[in-house]
Amino acid sequence: MKIASISSLLILSSVLFVSCLKSRDETGLLGDKDKGTVITEITDVSYNNLYGQDQVVALAATPASQTVTAFTLKYQAGKNPPSSDIKVKITPNNSNLAAGTVPLPTANYTIPAEITIPRSNARTVAFPITINRTGLNPAMVYGLTFKITSVSEGVISELGKEITVYFTL
């Protein structure tokens, strides 16, 4: 009798535990079901500092107007590459500037309305900014915060979506 009740208990336990097995978890990653999502980020942030990164760009004394790289954009893909080039929109603002930093006046810089990360093995592209030094004080440090606002495919990295760049003249 005792053996029968123990056997019954073991069989019942087995049935209960087997019913809990799933082919997927809550994130959808089990069972090789996830095909990967394209993630776009500012490389300088994600690899340097988990909570954001400041970048310093030193400008040459001449010419008055010059184009420099503010930071680098990158996409990461899972098993499937993006279906086409990734178009990224970046918005500048004056948030997160350190004390004593002067916001770079809008009249003194130009950035692309949209930048394209080619669907290739390189997966990165430099983000250019053209700065006109006319009227800027060389004794001041100027700054802008850049934020990824949209991507044509995939998602924006939460940790690598924003960077503050300081410009020294």
Outline of the structure:
The protein has 169 residues and is mainly β.
Describe the model.
The protein has 169 residues and is mainly β. It has helices spanning 2-19, 43-46; strands at residues 39-42, 54-58, 65-76, 86-93, 102-103, 109-110, 115-117, 124-132, 141-151, 155-156, 162-168. It is built from two helices and eleven strands; from the N terminus they run αβαββββββββββ. The longest helix is centred in the N-terminal third of the chain and has 18 residues, at 2-19. The radius of gyration is 25 Å and the shape is elongated.
Overview features:
169 residues; mainly beta; 5-stranded mixed β-sheet
The share of residues in extended strands comes to 35-45%
| Spatial gap, N to C terminus | 90 Å
Principal-axis shape: elongated
**Low-confidence blocks of residues:** 21-34
Q: Strand count, sense and closure of the main sheet?
A: 6 strands, mixed
Query: Which structural category do the helix and sheet elements fall into?
Result: mainly beta
Total helix count? 2
Helix-strand sequence? HEHEEEEEEEEEE
Mean pLDDT: 81
- Using the CA coordinates, give the radius of gyration: 25 Å
Give the beta-strand count.
11
Give the % helix. 10-25%
